[in-house]
Amino acid sequence: MDPVRVVLVDDEWLVRAGLATMLSGADDLVVVGEAGDGANVAELVRSTRADVVLMDLRMPGTDGVTATARLRDLPVSVLVLTTFDTDDLVRQALRAGADGFLLKDTPPADLVAAIRRAAAGEPALSPAIVRKLMARMTDGDESRLARARSALSALTEGERRVAEAVGQGLSNAEIAAAQFMSVATVKAYVSRILVKFEVANRVQIALLVRDAE
């Protein structure tokens, strides 16, 4: 199999160097590009054919949220990097299309595992973090509540069960085991849910499910 191609985006070169060093120990990952801000990340992703972007949020010039939004139409997964798990920028980035987030002090083995999951289309958020984020992202917006409930009502019973499981932060394999389905069937359900919800990734499915509660 080809290695997972990773782009590092952080305004501190020491951070990028540290990340590159950590990832160099994984035979199935390769750093193909780096950037000090988000201005030209989309072009960098296209030229390197990156699979995953590790995106810092607080950068001078073009910040990570703006850069993440510019990547929504590209076939790349975005993992945002932050110092705080309650940072409002994290919530903005997730709504902009990020596939998950990691704390900057994430152990190397967990960082590598998260990148692999993101490249495979799996969630890069633990169930505990999903629940914490979902709780903090509820703001009582009635229009968003109505949209979320309308979207859920359009799902079949099977799709709704899978959507709710995604909202709990479960992987495809975990959903398959819990729902007595094959992983391929779960993937098919997730693909249909993405289309019906008109969202870009699993995290946004989770946000919409949480909005409907």
TrEMBL record:
Keyword Coiled coil: no
GO biological process, alphabetically ordered: phosphorelay signal transduction system; regulation of DNA-templated transcription
Boundaries of every Response regulatory domain copy: 5-119
Alphabetical list of Gene3D superfamilies matching this protein: 3.40.50.2300
Domain of life per record: Bacteria
One function term, GO molecular function aspect: DNA binding
Keyword tRNA-binding: no
Pfam families membership: GerE, Response_reg
Matching InterPro entries: CheY-like_superfamily, NreC/VraR/RcsB-like_REC, Sig_transdc_resp-reg_C-effctor, Sig_transdc_resp-reg_receiver, Tscrpt_reg_LuxR_C, WalR-like
Domain HTH luxR-type: 148-213
PANTHER family referenced in this protein's UniProt entry, alphabetically: TRANSCRIPTIONAL REGULATORY PROTEIN NARL-RELATED (PTHR43214:SF24), TWO-COMPONENT RESPONSE REGULATOR (PTHR43214)
Record's protein name: DNA-binding response regulator, NarL/FixJ family, contains REC and HTH domains
Organism name: Amycolatopsis saalfeldensis
Lineage: Bacteria, Bacillati, Actinomycetota, Actinomycetes, Pseudonocardiales
